[in-house]
Design a protein that fits this description.
The chain has 91 residues and is mainly alpha-helical. The protein contains 2 helices and no strands. The chain is 81% helix and 0% strand.
Length: 91
């Protein structure tokens, strides 16, 4: 018998089973990671909306303060006018 005709028989079924198990495990991990990634994305979107809401609240607050200031000034002018002063004297 020559060495060129020598054949080896190797049982690779265990390797194929391990490969299939690893692939299944990777798929399962991906399925577990997907909800976590979606939750992180939703959390990020919620944080952005909270920042936008906070900014809007600050703008509203500034506008309200401005309007209150104008109303207070107008009220002061009217009080002085009620005391007999002219609008020019009050300003």
């Amino acid at each position: 018998m020559e060495l060129t005709q020598l054949k080896f028989v190797v049982d690779t079924s265990d390797l194929k089973n391990a490969s299939a198990t690893i692939k299944q495990l990777a798929d399962d991990v991906t399925k577990l990671n997907k909800p976590m990634q979606e939750a992180a994305s939703a959390s990020s979107a919620l944080n952005k909306e909270q920042v936008n809401s906070a900014n809007a609240s600050k703008q509203v607050e500034a506008n309200v303060k401005k309007q209150v200031s104008v109303l207070e000034r107008q009220q002061s002018i009217l009080e002085f006018m009620a005391q007999g002063m002219s609008k020019g004297q009050v300003s």
